[in-house]
Amino acid sequence: KAGVTQTPRYLIKTRGQQVTLSCSPISGHRSVSWYQQTPGQGLQFLFEYFSETQRNKGNFPGRFSGRQFSNSRSEMNVSTLELGDSALYLCASSISGGNTEAFFGQGTRLTVV
Amino acid sequence: QKEVEQNSGPLSVPEGAIASLNCTYSDRGSQSFFWYRQYSGKSPELIMSIYSNGDKEDGRFTAQLNKASQYVSLLIRDSQPSDSATYLCAAPILTGGGNKLTFGTGTQLKVEL
Q1: B24-34, pLDDT tens digit by residue?
Q2: Does A43 touch chain B (CB under 8 A)?
């Protein structure tokens, strides 16, 4: 059974640009959550999508957005990139979110210069 | 109070000893709890799930849950150098949109030869 796939693995972008990250969940999983991980802040929750609807949102500015498609694949977009957006972005898929086990992809390492 | 709280460490134990990792959570309604292991530069890997009060054993790992005290722990017996990693505790925290899987900042474990 294939795991969670995130693309791309690495990205280097310039301040002010925008970026789109992709996440393909485990087959049969309908919930996808996104996290930002930085050395000082740990894993910070960005948002969760379930059946194409955003169900939960963390405390991030509106520059961070996402969506989920009918096949449960999800994308995350960051507009007007700032240096502080440099981080490891992780997505986790689970059967239904909430109390169910979540499995992470390998992550996308974003560097903003 | 943080929603999920862990000591950041580092926790150093000699090879062959028992490592004890602790976690507290704020939402009394949380029903499931998870331990993840994260090696440097890698994504978190789910190693234990626990849903009921008491102990759950899986190989060298034992998770312990005390819902009355809002406390969950992970014991690693016969610690090996390969266990050196950051261990993340996670619990679903109820929000307006449902349960949000929330992580502690992680405890860094070092197993010394």
Answers
A1: 999 888 889 99
A2: yes
